Amino acid sequence: MSDDARRPLLQIIVASTRPGRIGEPIARWFAEYARAYEGFEVEIVDLAEVDLPMFAEPEHPRFGRYTLDTTKAFSATIARADAFVFVTPEYNHSFNAVLKNALDHLNREWAGKPATIVSYGGVAAGTRAAEALWPVLVGLNMVPVSAAVPIPFAMKNVSGEGDERVFSPAPETEAGAKAALDGLAAWVGKLGLQGTRA
């Protein structure tokens, strides 16, 4: 078994799906930073590429008796994670409907796993979105890691065009990312999640 196979899997979930979103370069930066941290295997889950309709399963997700192939595929993706980072913008003092829909599709796949938030926006740095998201994560029995990463005026730190856009973090953002990864790694260890994937 390789070193990567023994590492816990950190999924970075990109919430925004709109054209021109800056969540994508921010998520790529965090993924690169997390790989350099060397405590995790890292995977980006981009909700723009996840084919989920508005919630249409006939049974409560806690039963895991999914009928739609889209839900089954999303369930398999999320189930293999050991920890989560949600990269979210702020829409009208909250997080977006696409993320809420994705969270609502599943239940046990989220539970018992540490999670934190990378929020971004203008002067408020997406913090109102994070405040709205925390209780949802707790309601799904995730373990909240308080060391979140708020990014103010995030657009100013994005350069380039299209798929080549790059996010260049401020020193305090990098420090926040380090603290978030430390918190996630600590909880993964406490919860004994390493090596639980097939």
UniProtKB/TrEMBL annotation:
GO cellular component labels: cytosol
Protein species of origin: Actinomycetospora corticicola
Superkingdom of source: Bacteria
GO molecular function, one term: FMN binding
Membrane-spanning residues: none
Record InterPro entries: Flavoprotein-like_sf (IPR029039), FMN_Rdtase-like_dom (IPR005025), NAD(P)H-dep_reductase (IPR050712)
Gene3D superfamilies: 3.40.50.360
Coiled-coil ranges (or none): none
Entry protein name: NAD(P)H-dependent FMN reductase
Positions of the NADPH-dependent FMN reductase-like domain: 12-154
